[in-house]
Amino acid sequence: MSASKPVVYIFHGDDEFALGEAVNSIRAQMGDATTAEMNTTRLEGRNLNLDDLVRATRSLPFLAERRLVVLTDPLGSLKTNADRDKFKKIMEETPATTALAVRISSPLLDARGRRSGKTHWLEKWAAGQAGKAYVREYSLPKGPQMANWIRQKAKESGGEFNLQAAALLGIYVGDDPRLAAQEIEKLLAYVNYQRPVEPDDVEHLVAYAGETSVFEMVDALGARNGREALRLLHRLLAEDDPLRLFGMVTRQFRLLLQTRELIDAGNREQEIASTLKIHPFVVQKLMGQVRNFSLPQLETIYHKLLEIDEAIKTGQTEGDVALETLVAALTV
Fold first, then answer.
1. Confidence (pTM)
2. Which CATH code fits 144-205?
3. Which residues contact 25 (CB under 8 A, 6 or more apart)?
């Protein structure tokens, strides 16, 4: 085993797709999918029991070089100095036979905190670990950044987008990297990796009409109208790929959660549009829809979507089944 390989990985930021890819890159080094799954433990940080974390990190790998422990969003359970000290001690004592991936679904510090020169307590801890800990932030690509992100992803896949095509696809997918990644692969296959993707290819191949129906389905969920929500879901599934649809639903609830937080903080429509970098018309629709949900409800739904995302990626469930289950659970 390489002595320089980190033991603790702290991935944070609002780009859920990139966070998932970061964890998957560790899994990819663990051998075949079956072996990797046998050696992976997932813990939900919102109800974190530190003794469970100790047991998970101390377990030995089976027919593999390392085990992987994925701990999601633990910060809410680490509010006292005593809990933080115990958590840091667990990380320090995690053996090299375990990779501990701490996945945090928001930046450790907001932009104001960064500008003021603050450092998060996890970053301070990692800085003193002499290579044992690795910290990286994954921020959602927005506006022009999304076009650059699309071109880079295409290049990594062995293809190319011209700038106008990347900008157009960025408008279609918004700030949803998962959806963008699906469309990139589709478009590169369409041009057979033989030429750059052009705006006409994007116009021809990328469907955007599903957004309206997704909004209607979320409206039905907010009204607890299970029959209507399922009807709209089945219509969407008949017209679109389940994974693409799941990405659209996740994006909608992420926007609703962000909108709810901004409204509760006293922000007005124009301020919300500026902060989220979306059109004011979309903000108007979000502000109308978000009245159907409390902040705790939106947080619960969004975390459930992250759990479903993990289950889909690890083959534990199919996208269409997961969506139907989610709709049923939210409208009981």
1. 0.61
2. 1.10.8.60
3. none
